TrEMBL record:
It is an enzyme of class 2 (transferase). CDD domains: LPLAT_MGAT-like. InterPro entries: DAGAT (IPR007130). The lineage of its organism: Eukaryota, Metazoa, Chordata, Craniata, Vertebrata. The keyword Transmembrane helix applies. The chain crosses the membrane at residues 12-32. It comes from Loxodonta africana. One of its GO terms (biological process) is glycerol metabolic process. The keyword Ribosomal protein does not apply. It is a multi-pass membrane protein. It is found in: Endoplasmic reticulum membrane. GO terms for cellular component: endoplasmic reticulum membrane. This is Acyltransferase. GO terms for molecular function: 2-acylglycerol O-acyltransferase activity; diacylglycerol O-acyltransferase activity. Pfam families: DAGAT.
Length: 330
């Protein structure tokens, strides 16, 4: 097998970008497990006195559902700028947002590790502040990541407003804030979509996802479709057709992905250097309805699907998708 090694004269900036992405990948693959393992080792070796300071977790447990917190100095680390420039990741605005409203950004597709959502809605190096001045973005994550001791503190220090849970209580907390200018960014496809994040795939799994529509109706907050072109091109996956044993096993773990390595381009866990363009569509006005009926929910849901498809069709030719490429809803 021929291995395509990286040249020795790679610029320093590019090496730093690769290092930034490597630490990001390893953080999601290993850091949570290492934190849990460290806690278990301390318990086994009866080092209880080292755990005493962390007992405050009992009182801090609900923080991810109550707006979380953020640390400016961590969000300003240069590593996040190198991370964004590696691909590079771009945020594209198509419409101005009324600052008197709150918004739900429905992010599509999930991709393997949600690089586009992380790069655009996290840290101070995002273009979000310039494109949507005065707005605060909350990046909603699976509660599992925010339950891991120590790792949760690291996560809550990075994201714009600190990552928050994707639970109903958490989303309601953000959307019920008065004064507007709040954005709930939610990756709607979930784990099933990540398992089907293959290059060239333009399928989004949204048929069973209507909770965000009910939430928008309940609070009267506008919906905004967001499509990240290039998200599925960053990694390749081991073949896993629907119904295979491998897919059943992987429903409970990260996808078995691969791309390039640190010093060669043939295999490894570092994503490919593919531009990612995250396009923010026009907002969909929502009239507040405290107790939406199934008919009202379905009507707004269908409107959202139409706007998402329209956004995809209007921008696909700019970002490497042929005119015959069609967005599929599952």
């Amino acid at each position: 097998i021929k291995i395509d090694f990286a040249p020795l004269n790679v610029p320093l900036a590019r090496r730093l970008q690769t290092a930034a992405v490597l630490q990001w990948v390893l953080s999601f693959m290993l850091l949570a497990q290492e934190c849990i393992g460290t806690l278990v080792i301390l318990i086994i070796h009866t080092c209880w006195f080292l755990q005493v300071p962390y007992l405050w977790l009992y009182f801090d447990w609900c923080t991810p559902e109550l707006g979380s917190r953020r640390a400016q100095w961590i969000r300003s680390w240069a590593v996040w700028g190198y991370f964004k420039d590696y691909f590079p990741i771009h945020l594209i605005k198509t419409w101005d947002l009324d600052p008197s409203h709150n918004y739900i950004f429905g992010f599509h597709p999930h991709g393997v590790l949600v690089a586009g959502a992380f790069g655009n809605f996290c840290a101070n190096h995002s273009d979000l502040k310039e494109l949507f001045p005065g707005f605060t973005a909350c990046f909603h994550m699976l509660p599992f990541w925010l339950c891991c001791p120590f790792f949760r503190e690291y996560l809550m220090s990075i994201v714009h407003y600190g990552p928050v849970s994707v639970s109903k209580k958490s989303v309601s907390y953000v959307l019920s804030k008065e004064g507007g200018r709040n954005i709930s960014a939610i990756v709607l496809g979930g784990a099933k979509e990540s398992l089907n994040a293959h290059p060239g795939n333009v399928t989004v799994f949204i048929r069973q996802q209507k909770g965000f529509v009910k939430m928008a109706l309940t609070h009267g907050d506008y919906l905004v479709p967001v499509f990240s072109f290039g998200e599925n091109e960053l990694f390749k996956q081991v073949n896993n057709p629907e119904g295979s044993k491998l897919q059943c096993i992987r429903r409970f773990a990260l996808p078995l992905f691969y791309a390039r390595g640190i010093c060669q381009y043939n295999f490894g866990f570092i994503p490919c250097m593919k531009p990612t363009h995250t396009v923010v569509g026009p907002p969909i006005p929502v009239h507040q309805t405290q107790h939406p009926t199934p008919e009202q929910t379905e009507e707004l849901y269908q409107t959202y699907l139409e706007e998402l498809r329209k956004l995809f069709e209007e921008h696909k030719w700019k970002h490497g998708i042929s005119e015959h490429g069609t967005l599929i809803f599952e």
